Amino acid sequence: MKLKTLKLENFQGIRSLEFRFDGKSASVYGDNATGKTTLFNALTWLLFDKPATSAKNFTPKTKGPDGDVHYLDHAAEAQFDIDGRIVTLKKVYHEIYKKKKGSSTEEFDGHGVDYYIDGVPTKERDFQLMLFAFCGSAEKMKMLTMPDYFPEQLPWDTRRKILLEVCGDIDDDMVIASTPELQDLPQLLMMPGTSGQRYTVEDYKKIAQVTKSDINKQIQDIPGRIDEAHRAIPDTTGIDPEKIDTRIADLNSKRAELEQQKARILAGDTTAAEIRQRIAEGSAKLAEAKEAYATQNANINSSILAEISNKKASEIEALNNAKDHRNEAVRKQREVDQMTELREQLMKEYTKVQAERFDAGAETCQMCGQRLPEDNIQQLRENFNVRKSNRLAALNARGNKEANKDMIEAARSSIAELEVKAVQKEARAAILQTEIESLREKMVTPTPFEQTNEYRTITAQIDAYKTEECEAGNKAGEAVKVITDEIQSLYAEIEREKDRKAMLRAAAGQLERIEELKQREKELAAKYEQLEHGVYLCELFTKTKVSMLTSKINEKFRKVRFRLFVEQINGGLKEDCEVMVPTEDGRLVPFAFANNAGRINAGLEIIDTLSRHWGIEMPVFVDNAESVTRIIPIDTQIIRLVVSEADKKLRVEVGA
Question: If you ran DSSP here, which 8-state letter would residue 323 be given?
């Protein structure tokens, strides 16, 4: 793609200017502020809508002493030779003015851009599609026209991606095969539970670092846990486990003998058992008597309770009816309020419409100011009167249908009737409540069973049996108490011996726990060492791949080199993609720190490589070209922008 001509019109202060390059390299000379960079901005704005300077809020508008100069078209037009086809592209930036409703003057309403291909107006989308068909994406055009775009403005990861596209990536298996020390890496990268899926090296390193951190914390915790287990071991000095078992067996034998003696005493006490039987029979007799008494007195008030129940049901019904009447009255009142409010609104609207008068101003033509013909005026008046009459009729009809006086009065009358009915029902409920209270006063309360002679007779007999039981039990109880005390003493002795035996088990358990913790510490240390080895292999892999990639990428360039990784303090590698520019003494410095000549030549070399890879050739502008004594030769059209104090107007030398 060769640039033949570039024409500017009202573009950032350049009123009208045309340059002819005829598809050849050229030099543009001019003093500072004569418009050299503006040429570059015009081309990049035309191609991909951005200035070469990457300025924010860029606009091609011309500015005067008081700001923007209005009512101008700002245009950039270029003619290109694209594989033998001559194509003319043009963009025009202009202000938009519109008349707002009711206003006779135009007001500013933003900006617009018009697009042309070979002089024919076209849509922005078609304009871009045509460009992309010849030149690739907007990003490719930026990389192939601006020497500093790829090395300085692109994010590092995008630069890296493009370099790998140009030079080709290196397969991981190739890297592993190149270094015998990496032969164990594929097995380390294998995902658990799979037979062929592997983690990436970076994913494995992340997992390994997290796992190492977790293992390290566990290892650091183990000494404290071992110390805690040591402190939890009870003092078992002088405790013999065999003697404890013998002692417990002897104590259990004595306890069993005493239990048998106690059972024999309790089994021989038949008198107490007979008395307890008589007490149980007396208690059953008392319960039967109480139930019979309750049954006898249950029906004393049955007729009164039935009458109370009936009257209570009638009272509830009356109260519910009263509540329904009042709720209906409230609903009716809302209807009255709504109809009254609507009637007032309709009457106000009716009065307002009734007061409307024909606008005499309508008799005059708004365009020429002359009085309309009488026939037209008469028609306008008739139309006004008809509309007014129809509106009044509609308001009157709605009032008669939705809110007339009879409807409101009928609703109010209904409310009064509902209030009377509610009062009547409430009065009826009050009468029923009085009758219920009167019936309750007539109810008879029977004497409690506990105050009857029958209750006193039965309970006296039961009390006598209990006294007899107590006297009989005192004799056997004394012997049983002595044996029971001896049994409890033996139980306490047995529990003390069991506690001593438990101390032995606790001590053995803590010692076993200590051994488990020590074994766990060894296992964790071995796993940590294995992960360390894995991380080392990953870093060796990365360094090997970096070396291979760097060599492969640098083969595509003559002098420019690329730093793909930065070695960190901890020995690891951080991904990067820095353009390194050679200096006169053979050193390589980052693009940002190189001198202007080094930066320009490095950018041109990158453009040359990318252009050959994509098969796309575009004109390249080199700003501040006077700072470079020798621009490296590349197979594309170069437009040098040279500061020349003697040239107060821009001057072009084609082929220079």
Answer: H
Question: How many whole angstroms separate alpha carbon 331 and alpha carbon 647?
Answer: 95
Per the CB < 8 A criterion, the answer to whether 339 and 408 are in contact is yes
Task: Measure the CA–CA gap between 376 and 409, rounded to whole angstroms.
Answer: 48
User: Angle at Cα 440 formed by Cα 436 and Cα 444, nearest 5°?
Assistant: 155
Question: Cβ neighbours of residue 650 under 8 Å, at least 6 residues apart?
Answer: 17, 19, 28, 29, 30, 34, 35, 36, 39
Confidence at 463, pLDDT banded by 50, 70, 90? confident
Query: What H or E segment, with its residue span, contains residue 644?
Result: none
- For residues 135 and 1, the answer to whether their CB atoms sit within 8 Å is yes
Is 0.85 surpassed by the pTM of this model? Answer: no
Model confidence pLDDT, tens digit, residues 216-263: 999 999 999 888 888 888 877 777 777 888 888 888 888 888 888 777
How far, in Å, CA of 134 to CA of 128, rounded?
10
Please name the amino acid found at residue 374: E
What is d(CA 509, CA 523) in angstroms, rounded to the nearest whole number?
Answer: 21
Rg over alpha carbons for the chain, rounded to the nearest Å, is 55
**Contact (CB, 8 A) for 226 and 516:** no
Task: Give the tens place of pLDDT for each residue, 379-432.
Answer: 988 998 999 899 999 989 988 988 888 888 998 999 999 999 999 988 988 998
To the nearest whole number, what is the mean pLDDT of the chain? 87
37-46, 403-412, 603-612: least confident range? 403-412
Domain boundaries, the chain: 2-136+616-654, 302-441
Q: Examine the pLDDT at 589 and tell me if it is beyond 80.
A: yes
- CA–CA separation, 382 and 276 (whole Å): 119
Q: What's residue 115's pLDDT?
A: 97
What residue has token string 């009358």? 413
Which residue bears the tokens 């983690």? 199
Q: Which two tokens stand for residue 550?
A: 């760097």
Please, what's the largest Cα pairwise distance for the chain?
Answer: 144
pLDDT digits (tens, 9 = 90+) for 65-85: 888 888 899 999 999 999 889
Q: List the one residue out of 542, 543, 554, 546 whose CA is nearest residue 167.
A: 554
Please state, as a whole number, how many other Cβ atoms lie within 10 Å of the Cβ of residue 91.
21
pLDDT tens per residue, range 259-288:
887 777 766 555 666 777 788 888 888 888
- The rounded distance, in Å, linking the Cα atoms of 57 and 468 is 114
Comparison of pLDDT for 507 and 636, the residue scoring more: 636
Residue 638: what are its φ and ψ, rounded to 5°?
-115, 130
What is the Cα–Cα distance from 256 to 260, expressed in whole angstroms? 6
Q: How many residues does the chain have?
A: 656
- Check if the beta carbon of residue 21 is closer than 8 Å to that of residue 35: no
Task: Using DSSP, state whether 444 is helix, strand or coil.
Answer: coil
Alpha helices in 179-232 (DSSP H): 185-189, 201-231
Determine the 3-state secondary structure of 622 from DSSP: strand
How far is the C-alpha of 336 from the C-alpha of 330, rounded, in Å?
A: 10
Q: Apex CA 124: angle with CA 119 and CA 129, to 5°?
A: 90
CATH code of the domain occupying 2-136+616-654:
3.40.50
